[in-house]
Structure prediction request, 482 residues.
Amino acid sequence: MSDMHENPPDDDFDSLYRRTFSRDGDGPSESVRRAVLRHAAELAANRAADLSAAGGHAHWVPMRAGAHSHWRRSAVYGTLAVAALACLVVVPHWLLPPTKPRAPAATVAKLAPSVAMAPALSGSAPGLSGSAPAPKIEGLQPGNVSAETFRDRRVDANTSYYDRPSAPAPAAPPAPAAASATASAAPAAAPRDVASALREAAETGNVPRLRALLDEHADVDARDSDGRTALMLAVINGRPGAVAALLASGADPNAAAGNGTTPLQVAEARDEPAIVAALRRAGAR
Amino acid sequence: METYSQRMEDLGDSDEGLMQRYAHGDALAFERLYERHEMRTWRYLERNVGNRASADELMQDVWFAVARDAPRYQPSARFTTWLFTIAHNRLIDWLRTHRQALSLDTLGYEAQAVVSQLTADTGAGPVAAAVAREQAIALTRALAELPTEQRDAFLMQVEGDLGVEQIAAITGASFETTKSRLRYARAKLRELLEEYA
Prediction:
């Protein structure tokens, strides 16, 4: 994306190009469209069958509510059992004095009765959520690697791998408890900044920046204090490139501003045929 | 615990997410992807080859390749970059085979057909229609007069929303060469537009 910032496309000329061809209803013939979609569907069916046969995940079928309830129940109980086992093994490591030699697993089970686990677990939760510093746990020493590792992994799990599928997996740093709290508190402020940046990019017609922000999963329909979405700002400022990028990213074409005006009404009032056509194609009313 | 279906839904409706979903057998994800990029792919191909029949042929070829190679697609690359890499390669193969330099003569009827479609029923009054028609004719003619590499780079940027670096990577040209092609393309288009309009 950096190249695009270095060399921004000629917005005026590109606008002229898009405006000129805005009503270009021409496209591939219907037979091509049918052939492509049929071919793709056949390949998808084959892949789904292969995955099922290989014992992998079955083909993409959204689960119905109530379906596979038996499987789900097993999964829930299994998860709880694994979590309880993890607590039995790890929590005593946090609580044991450092001078004591590590007890064998059987002894650990005896030293950590289920009654003692409850406060230990509830105490660790605020540290992870960022609402309070992580509790000081007596006996936790820098050398107690297993406890640190366990806690770090839980923080990593909170930052969800699926949040950024395209980003390279960062090496997990040995985060201290305070740093973990700060890191987990950051996302609360981030969305507002990203949303503002997205609206600004839409307003100025900075399509490369807009796309970069959308790639970062910015909320495409976030509103400003007047209830205007990025799409509305792009329309108000006559930015067909930004409108196209926002619509392609799933922006709601009918998201009205706080005063009830829709993007289509603004585009028509501004006499922007390219934008009107793009909005209509996206289902604007 | 997150289910497989939830994970797939988490991949979302981004191009990259849809590709991953399609690679796992979700035909509807492909359909959405196709809908989203159909017109830009079509315009890129049609304006490069100058006739509908060849553009249809290439269009089918490109999207068959997208469907076939979906399992090999790496989401670290933007989908549009990947798509236009395929489209560009197919286009180059086609140009090598046909050795058909685009010109106003080869565009001929096709250009007029495109312009007619562009300017039909503008709904914006006769004056606006006439202006739009003249602009469309001028721009179509200007595009046809560009050297192949310049037109290719320009269309990739304007239809694919690709950056200089991405276009350079796709075409195998250097960054500076690509930048020059884009600059010359726009300068030439401006010049031709003034001449024709």
User: Anything to note?
Assistant: Chain A is about 60% helix and 0% strand. The radius of gyration of chain A is 27 Å. Chain A touches chain B through 63 residues (CB under 8 Å). Residues 177-204 of chain A form the longest helix (28 residues).
